[in-house]
């Protein structure tokens, strides 16, 4: 297992570098100019100095290599200095947003807590609901619970999240006036009333995301359980007199989780990427909204850094899913 993990990590290095190059080239080919919004009254020599300050006067390969140095060397040094009080990164050029002139890493860290609170909680609730729903639906196939679960899953997966969000806003915010329709990111939780307000404003976005995630994962869980319930080892376990709960929850569930692990693991990066549509509907000031604003303002360093981080997370959780295969099923061996 250790050899396999080491080999995968060594393979991931050129993969990540190729992904970073592909992202950079695609953004280079994208239309738009970060200086397009500059007023026409500014003299050309001032515009030239502004382009030079942004590094736009340098060749593409120079800007790409500079970004690699900043992302993999300067930003980790800044983090190290912050943790241990050193000054190794002093006067080093960081990845800076063209729109705000602030370091990109600081912008991401400012938005990350909101995304993790809303999107992360929505994903956690969705997975927690999907696994038992899928298990019960498969074990009680064609029962009323299975029929209801199938219907809700189809609705949850088929209906767009922006439509579900608008429906919840119309019902619970406009009609009943129970929940706030706009997420207040400036709210500070320091008392019981502020905690209640925080919970209220999280209910609708978490419900939208949990319904969408649970609908997808529960279908995978149900199909995998149905496939394993018909295998010979299940009949053998029952013939040996094992309790039904042990057969289903230990033997069948463990084997059924193997394909579902891929779906769950590959869905984790979406937590950090943010739910772009849901964040727009409920005005959650998270990473999804940050990415949309960066694309609209042609802020290439911020767009490039965010998309690259998402790509690295996908590669990482692919590896984690493969490792979990061996933990869930000892028959799997990596050569």
Please give a structural write-up.
The protein has 335 residues and is mostly helical. The protein folds into 2 domains: 55 residues, no CATH class; 224 residues, MetI-like fold (Orthogonal Bundle). It is built from 13 helices and no strands. The longest helix is centred in the middle third of the chain and has 38 residues. The model has no long low-confidence stretch (mean pLDDT 82).
What is the CATH homology-level superfamily of the largest domain? MetI-like
- Enter the CATH topology name of the largest domain: MetI-like fold
Indicate the structural class. Answer: mainly alpha
Amount of beta strand: under 5%
Measured distance between first and last alpha carbons? 8 Å
CATH architecture of the largest domain: Orthogonal Bundle
Instruction: Summarize the biggest pleated sheet.
Output: none
Descriptive key words:
MetI-like fold; 335 residues; mainly alpha; single chain
Secondary structure: elements and pairs:
Blueprint lengths: L1 H28 L14 H11 L5 H25 L19 H36 L4 H15 L2 H15 L16 H38 L2 H8 L4 H24 L1 H5 L2 H7 L4 H10 L3 H29 L7
Helix pairs in contact: 1-13, 4-5, 4-7, 4-9, 5-7, 6-7, 6-11, 7-9, 9-13, 11-12, 12-13
Brief overview:
By secondary structure, the protein is mostly helical. The chain is built from 13 helices and no strands. The protein is globular, with a radius of gyration of 24 Å.
């Amino acid at each position: 297992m250790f050899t396999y993990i080491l080999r995968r990590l060594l393979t991931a290095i050129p993969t990540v570098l190729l992904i970073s190059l592909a992202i950079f080239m695609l953004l280079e080919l994208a239309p738009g100019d970060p200086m397009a919004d500059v007023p026409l009254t500014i003299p050309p020599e001032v515009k030239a100095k502004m382009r030079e300050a942004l590094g736009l006067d340098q060749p593409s390969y120079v800007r790409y290599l500079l970004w690699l140095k900043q992302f993999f060397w300067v930003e980790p040094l800044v983090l190290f200095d912050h943790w241990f009080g050193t000054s190794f990164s002093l006067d080093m050029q960081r990845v800076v947003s063209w729109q705000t002139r602030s370091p990109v890493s600081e912008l991401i860290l400012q938005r990350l807590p909101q995304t993790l609170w809303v999107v992360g909680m929505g994903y956690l609730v969705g997975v927690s609901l999907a696994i038992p729903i899928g298990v019960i639906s498969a074990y009680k196939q064609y029962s009323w619970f299975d029929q209801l679960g199938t219907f809700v899953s189809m609705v949850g997966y088929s209906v767009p999240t922006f439509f579900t969000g608008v429906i919840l806003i119309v019902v619970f915010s406009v009609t009943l006036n129970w929940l706030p329709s706009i997420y207040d990111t400036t709210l500070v939780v320091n008392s019981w009333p502020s905690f209640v307000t925080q919970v209220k404003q999280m209910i609708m976005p978490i419900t939208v995301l949990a319904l969408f995630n649970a609908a997808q994962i529960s279908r995978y869980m149900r199909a995998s359980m149905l496939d394993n319930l018909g295998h010979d080892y299940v009949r053998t376990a029952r013939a040996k007199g094992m309790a039904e709960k042990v057969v289903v929850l230990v033997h069948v569930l463990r084997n059924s989780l193997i394909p579902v692990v891929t779906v769950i693991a590959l869905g984790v990066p979406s937590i950090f990427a943010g739910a772009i549509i849901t964040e727009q509907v409920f005005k959650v000031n998270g990473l999804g909204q940050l990415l949309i604003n960066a694309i609209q303002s042609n802020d290439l360093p911020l767009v490039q850094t965010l998309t690259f981080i998402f790509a690295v997370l996908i590669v990482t959780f692919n590896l984690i899913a493969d490792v979990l295969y061996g933990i869930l099923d000892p028959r799997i061996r990596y050569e």
